[in-house]
Amino acid sequence: MKVKALILGMGLLGSLSAFAAGELRYGVEAEYPPFESRNSAGQLEGFDIDLGNAICKAAQLKCSWVEGSFDALIPGLVAKKFDAINSAMNITDQRRKSIDFTQPIYRIPSQLVGKAGSGMQATPEGLQGKTIGVLQGSIQETFAKEHWEKHGVTVVSYRDQNMAWADLLNGRIDASLVMSAAGQAGFLSKPQGKGFGFIGQPVADDTILGSGIGFGLRKGDAATKKQLDAAIDKVRADGTITRLAAKYFPGIDVSVK
């Protein structure tokens, strides 16, 4: 029993080692502006970067960032390559099978981006024979495969969203399903987005699209959850989330219902 207790104690110490050092390692996929990307100087920037730094400050922790593709973030978290996923990851029942989450921090609708005046609709019937691009490992990928692919719509998955935008421009895909803020800031507001726009209304399916965006945590990491949830409460109460949303997502209500 003493040996078992010692092993369990060592495991607990290992899980808390980042906080003993006062550091929180975030996992991030840095190809999804305005949530996270690198600027011309090679520095990380975006809503989630500013939010993550604010939450670390509220929790009196030092932030560091570990980059990877979006679909590699959950495996990386489980493998302890970092302590929390901070990469616009929606909280869903499917993901809860593998990881835990903080409380929801904000919410962004998902919407289709395509050629203006194309006549497409964000429905199985309105996308018949079309090809839709999605980010690999995203809830938009899950939604498109569940609601559209089964009805004759081709769904193509990309390692990062910039690849989908490139294929939309060269005509390899007809539209891309993304979080609306990413579509606006990452494509439509740029010169290459001229002639494109949102197609129809935001899509809806709470089971797939989730209850909001939070930080992904390892299963059973109650200490990290408690510390980050308290910090999230602080940055919500002092208006930080509202200010950052106004900066990065003007006109979009990000509040968690």
From TrEMBL:
Protein localization: Cell envelope
Entry keyword annotation includes Signal: yes
Residues in Solute-binding protein family 3/N-terminal domain copies: 23-252
SMART domains (alphabetical): PBPb
Signal peptide interval: 1-20
Keywords: Signal
Predominant place of localization: other
InterPro entries tied to this protein: SBP_3_CS (IPR018313), Solute-binding_3/MltF_N (IPR001638)
Any coiled-coil regions, as ranges: none
Name of the protein: Transporter substrate-binding domain-containing protein
Taxonomic source organism: Pluralibacter gergoviae (Enterobacter gergoviae)
